Amino acid sequence: MSLAFDRSAGDGPEVVCLPMFSMTRVATAAAFGPAFAGTDARPTYLDLPGHGDSPATGPATSQAVLESVCGWLDHHAQAPVLLAGASYGAYLAAGIARQRPELVRGLLLVCPGITIAHDSRDLPDAPPLDAPTGWLDAAPDALRAHLDAAVGHRTPGVVATVLAALGSGGAGDATFQEELRTGPGYALPDENVDVVFDGPVSVITGRQDGIVGYADQFRAMRRYPRGTYSVLDGAGHYLPFEQPALLRSLTQDWLLRARMTAIR
């Protein structure tokens, strides 16, 4: 199927970036673009099926979404490529590395989902960090509980940045997204299979991430013998918007390790 995408020009390695659930390639560029600035990496940003400007075709399952991304990689990229993703996008990227490892040279997984079922996630139980009075005032009522759980760096500026990202890009297909999120096919069928991927991997998590946590991600590092794991204090599920400088530093380390692997 045809997925909407934006591709950067250049001679460096292509990094295909997959978005958070319900977000668009515009939001993904806002999240990852600063981390790649000043490098020779060529980020490409995709809209998943039913997200942004990509049509919702095929069944509303994560496996079908994954296969759509693999089909795009087969026809539009010179494999193997570097894959980056945040949250659901990182969940898909890890799934592609399990199912189609020949497509993947390395993984950058930011706040990755490990298990889809919410009650199976190991979430932090520490109290949230202090926040200024009214830090959520700009958020609509329907999003306040989500942001209260998701945001670790709790400031009005971070909230404004996240809200701008959530509202950017095409509208997508809300019905398809809801069917995907609530349906029996939301979890990938091989979610719990420990397939080893031996390319360069960086897993970056937020210490105050109340959506996917950070402990499950550490346990999953057994799948990545060349993996680096980082947990950032003062960061939650929207880590790219909460700690952009640290994300940039860790991304550049990952790119260096990927380059060293390529020239061996």
Automatic annotation (TrEMBL):
This is Alpha/beta hydrolase. InterPro entries: AB_hydrolase_1, AB_hydrolase_fold, AB_hydrolase_sf. The lineage of its organism: Bacteria, Bacillati, Actinomycetota, Actinomycetes, Micromonosporales. Residues 44-247 form the AB hydrolase-1 domain. GO terms for molecular function: hydrolase activity. Keywords: Hydrolase. Pfam families: Abhydrolase_6. It comes from Micromonospora tarensis.
